[in-house]
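USER: Please consider what follows.
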Amino acid sequence: MNDHRLLACASLCVRGKTADVGTDHGYLPVYLVEQGIAERCIACDINEAPLASAKENIAAAGLSDRIDTILSDGLDNIPPEGIRNVVIAGMGGELIADIISRAEWLREGVNLVLQPMTKWDHLREYLAQNGFEVLEEKACREGKFVYSVIRAVWTGRAREEKCTLAYLYGGRVSPDTEEGRAYLLRQAQRLEAVGRGVASSPDRAEDAERYLSAAAELRQRAEIQETINTDMR
């Protein structure tokens, strides 16, 4: 498997049975079983066509006895018994949050691995407000885009104080890697674009300053680390 997003997701899974939501071609469950990260997996999708493709790939890998395929809207049809990881990747943050909200059993120590394509701020805010602790985030590059993969678990402790703009856009992504710095700088650009747009309204100067200040914070995180790396060379 050479999909950097899925490899990043796999690296944040703990050992154990895994449900892959929106499995598409089933590449991640196959990889997890082949690498010994999971003895069993569930590959689920809301549409029959990608699930059929997943079944073919799973069969070709000789893993039909270890990977179940289930047609399901999110986790609605997934039996929770024994599941250690739930991976939800390649969707918008709002949809990921909705899927999590409908599965109460995720609050029983399940390791969540989440990769939002859009609305990352909505997802981070949902997690913070609903008692899910973000344990780590990993940035990864796929083509010309840089994404973040979030690892979270429910603790029951709401952390709304974390919901600053800088956190909602940058999360816990570390600038220690090239991908991490690229992610933070791209998120800073997005904040700057919003800030400039808001600044065109005379009565929203304070909002514009919030966005531009958050952008500056993310830029500083990335650029300080780059300076450290340069000094160490």
